[in-house]
Amino acid sequence: MTTSETGQSQTDRLIGIGLVNLATLSWASNMTLGRWLRADIGPVTLSAGRFLIASSILAAMLLRMPVNERRLGQDRWLLLGMALSGVALFTPTLYLGLRHTTAVNATLINGMGPLLTGILAALLIGERMTRRQIVGAAAGALGVGVLISGGRVRFWQAMDGGIGDLIVLGAVVLWALYSVLSRRAMRDRSALSASAFSALLGLPLLVLGSIWETQASAFAFTPQLILPLLFIGTVPGVLGLLSWNGGVRRLGAGGAMIYYNTLPLYGALLGRVFLGEALGLNHLLGGGLIVLGGLWAAGGAWDPAID
User: Fold this and answer.
1) Are 241 and 199 in contact (CB under 8 A)?
2) How far apart are the first and last CA of the chain?
3) Torsion region of 65: left, alpha or beta (phi above 0 gives left; psi -120 to 50 gives alpha)
4) Angle (deg, nearest 10), helices 262-275 and 281-298
């Protein structure tokens, strides 16, 4: 590899790291706002509103792309898999899980994402994890544990593996699958094209689910929900999705998922600023482990993969 090629690879990695962190920051804002909305709107309806707005924006952007980017090609089944896993199922499943378990438990379970993504990437597309990625993922998961438990042993003793925890775990598996499928799909198309098609293909299922949910529950749409939905649709729905897929394209599914552990860190900061939640030593220690774990993993992009 020449010096210029090495420099370009380093630049791509740094861009990828920045994109993935931008995605997790936008999704942290979504979780902060989602906590506020959970008593006002159902999980499927909230997801449908988010992707209705996101799909409209993505479709408009897609019209400006080359003709080949606006077509469903031989990768249509990959795009459909992305739509089912990351759009139609992941978001409603996560919101549903949060109705039956605490946000603390849900955040902890999300820390398993890097390991699950690495395993699925190895099984489905042969993308092996390096030793540094494994160590970085473990450090990030430990950071998540410190962040949300405050280092209290009693916290772990009191945790119960209820139905909500299992639902959130299912959501993390779905997002890991989406990351792996998007990595494969983006070998032949741009992040914008993959994101737009996955959102457009998943939207009809969310709309149908929203109609059923609205009829079967006491939730009613009010004008006060318009601004929050616009934010959720544009920032997490478009900016977050494009940033994540762009990061996956540069770092790989396993490499990108390491930085998914920054989501609880950003969530803690946003909770402190906008909700007045406490920010203590555990946030500093846990956040440090998350960041250092990601930097360590990123520093070994050319390390030998684990067989």
Assistant:
1) yes
2) 24
3) beta
4) 150
Name the H helices within the chain.
Answer: 3-37, 43-62, 76-82, 90-97, 103-110, 113-125, 131-149, 153-158, 163-185, 191-216, 226-234, 241-251, 253-258, 262-275, 281-298
- Cα(248)–Cα(265) distance, integer angstroms: 20
Task: Give me the amino acid identity at 81.
Answer: G
Residue 21, CA atoms < 13 Å, CB-side half-sphere = 13
Cα atoms in the Cβ-side hemisphere of radius 13 Å centred on 33: 20
240-263 pLDDT per residue, tens: 888 988 888 888 876 787 787 788
**Residue 231 corresponds to which tokens in the numbers above?**
């934010």
Residue 130, strand partner residues? 305
Question: CA nearest 129: which of 252, 261, 15, 294?
Answer: 252
Which structure tokens are listed for 307?
A: 């067989």
Assigned token pair, 297: 């993993």
C-alpha angle 236/238/242, rounded to 5°? 105
The Cα–Cα gap between 208 and 179 comes to: 25
For 130, the 3-state DSSP assignment is: strand
Residues 6+ apart with CB under 8 A from 93: 167, 168, 170, 171, 174
Query: Taking the complete model, does pTM exceed 0.85, yes or no?
Result: no
CA distance 143 to 109: 12
DSSP lists the bridge partners of residue 305 as: 130
- Measure the CA–CA gap between 282 and 289, rounded to whole angstroms: 11
State pLDDT tens for residues 180-209. Answer: 898 888 888 888 898 899 999 999 999 999
